[in-house]
Amino acid sequence: MWNKWLSILLVMVLGVPVVACEANNVDGSEPNQQPFPYTVEVAAQQLDVPWELDFAADGRIFFTERPGRVRIIQAGKLLPEPLISFPAPFVSEGEGGLLGLVLDPQFAHNHYVYVYQTYREGQNTYNRVLRLRENNNQAVIDKVLIDKIPGSAIHNGGRIKIGPDQRLYITTGDARRPELAQDRASLAGKILRINLDGTIPAENPFPGSPIYSWGHRNPQGIAWNPQTGFLYSSEHGQSAHDEINRIEAGVNYGWPEIQGTEQRAGMKSPILQSGDLTWAPSGMTFISKGPWAGELLVANLRGEQLQRISIDPNQPDKVRESTALLQQQYGRLRDVVEAPDGSLYLLTNNRDGRGEPKEGDDKIIRLVLKQQ
Fold first, then answer.
1. pLDDT one-digit tens code per residue, 188-202
2. Engineering a disulfide at 342: which of 162, 289, 337, 359 sits with its beta carbon 3.0 to 4.6 angstroms away?
3. Which residues lie across from 134 on neighbouring strands?
4. Can you give the three-state secondary structure of 250-278, one letter per residue?
5. Are 130 and 145 in contact (CB under 8 A)?
6. Is the dihedral of CA 122, 123, 129, 133 positive or negative?
7. pTM of the predicted structure, to 2 decimals
8. Would you call 158 exposed, middle or buried from its count of C-beta atoms within 10 A (0-12, 13-18, 19+)?
9. Average pLDDT estimate for 311-334
């Protein structure tokens, strides 16, 4: 309560909004304050816009840097040489570049790494998903899995994850052309779903199409609730109205026809949205270990915070509580990932052209579960 009145006083005196460091219960009840169950350490620093990471069974951590490098942390040390660097026609401009990354479930045997990258062809900008083959901390391009995803200096999406169904899910932005999100002939403004060899799953909602859901503006995070199996996404709104959506096959999420709390027949509204605030939500993960098991964490860029969202397991579209964590402590957060041991990894993006770099930026922050 004191935080609330302090925020109001600062708004009156300074004329600027202040985000309170407390939970916002959707039902209006008092927030359930809990101690922070992690200790903080720096896993790597002096990085250049790290975007997404994944863990190999042998302990190595693979991650992308947006200017065009895949890097490796091995035995707790950042290796000086990248796994691979991308030359032209790869291009890193604005929000485009080397973005998503995920390791194959059989990486220990086939050494496949999947990445999402922006490139230029003539006067056009596109995105594509590549399959790399790793050998002794070096990699080569093995195959282009999906190509000609419309791209731009902004709104490229870029998150890739392998779902519980062993399919590859890909988020794409509207490439600064909102009308493409409502065009099922375009790959822009969608969540795509393909097989790991690049073919189209027979059970996709639109026969012969990689489109899984549509009507998205710039989705940058996807995660599956391990308790229910439902898929959720984060999405940047236009001038605030950022969204958390529950994703269903074949469903239209409305952009640019609706946003925020707006509704229209045949379109699905978000389960949570930011209203007049801007979160710029990006990577997200469900926690599977520790006292916060079952909670959804979402990295925020503009919001400079980590959102902790509690979803009712019996009502998958109902958010019970949303809490702001680590506000303005590490700057812009691009991704949050849970490691196999239950620790969390945060990727800062203060060098992405929109942040204010601090000493050591950019960093990968490790949150280690405290002993109970």
1. 999 999 999 999 999
2. 289
3. 139
4. CCECCCCCCCCCCCCCCCCCCCEECCCCC
5. yes
6. positive
7. 0.92
8. buried
9. 97
